[in-house]
Structures are given as C-alpha cells and as structure tokens.
Amino acid sequence: MSDNLNLLMYIKNQLSDLIYINGIIATELTKITENLAAIRHSEEFLQQSKCISEHQTLNQSIIDIVRKYKQMPKDYKDLKNLEKHVLDHDD
C-alpha cells in the first residue's frame, strides 16, 4: 500500500511540475507573439490593439491554473517568481 501511495505522490508532483513548465511556456509564447507584432507592425500598433489586455487576461488565467496545482508551501517561491515575471513583465 505504501509503495502505491509513494508512486501516486510521485506522479502528482510530476504532473504539478509539468503544469508549471507548461505555464512558463504558454506565457512566454504570448510575449513572443507581442514582440513579433511590435516588430512587424510597430510598438504603436501593438499598444492600440486590444491584444495587450487580452494577453494579460490569458496570462492571469494561466497563472490561476498553475496556482490550482502548485499548492504546497515549497511551490510558493516558483509561483511568485512566475507571477512577478509574467504579470509585471514590462515594469
């Protein structure tokens, strides 16, 4: 029984880490998209579009999903670093 529980905890932690990594990838891809739009059309074009606010909303949703699965005290630092990087990226 203990081996099964250990295996389940291992898989749970592994999935939690994968969700975190995918959250990083998703938010960075959003930023890459913004940067490419600014290069292609100009920074002014990007600022006038509704993409920035939509991307911010999407990034917040991604952070919320990561938070849902990273709830252990040891995860707090990773989550805070991701939030700071993604939500305060332009500060």
Question: What this model shows, in words?
Answer:
The protein is mainly α and 91 residues long. It has one domain (19-83). The protein is 85% helix and 0% strand. The longest helix is centred in the first third of the chain and has 40 residues, at 2-41.
Number of separate domains: 1
Nearest-angstrom radius of gyration? 17 Å
pLDDT averaged over residues: 88
Q: Could you give the distance between the termini?
A: 50 Å
pLDDT under 50 segments (min length 5)?
Answer: none
Secondary-structure-derived class: mainly alpha
List SSEs in N-to-C order. HHHH
Structure summary, number of beta strands: 0
Short summary:
The chain has 91 residues and is mainly alpha-helical.
Core attributes:
mainly alpha; 4 helices; single chain; 0% strand; 91 residues
SSE blueprint and pairings:
Elements: H1 2-41, H2 43-48, H3 51-69, H4 76-87
